[in-house]
Amino acid sequence: MAITLMNPEGLPEVPVYRQVAIATGSKLVFIAGQVARDAEGNPVGAGDIAAQVEQCYLNIGTALAEAGGSFDDVAKLTAYIVDWTPDKMPLLMEGIARASAKLGVAPVPPLTGIGVSALAEPDLLVEVEATAVLD
């Protein structure tokens, strides 16, 4: 495995992700921001942040598999959330948990959440991009 995830002493431990990813692999995979669309391009989870996060993670899982990897190879995730407020955190965590259960993994690489005013289409509430490192 090319990624080691850790929470260094002296930094707060966050239950849903690790603060640091150490990459030792040789193949970088950059996955474009994934949104709540199924394989046919149909919208998923209208108005539901958790459902949209879940679909974003599932799409990332599909992209990683095609590249020969899995969530174990993800070094960094960035989530863009429309009209972010802290009270939306449980919905973000619910979506991650549901995707984790379906994927059979605990995707806990470093995660940065960024509040945005809008995404490319009005029904999109979340977009998630990933960087992975494979051996």
Automatic annotation (TrEMBL):
Q: Which InterPro entries match?
A: RutC-like_sf (IPR035959), YjgF/YER057c/UK114 (IPR006175)
Q: Which domain of life is it from?
A: Bacteria
Which family does the similarity line name?
A: Belongs to the RutC family.
Protein name (Swiss-Prot/TrEMBL)? RidA family protein
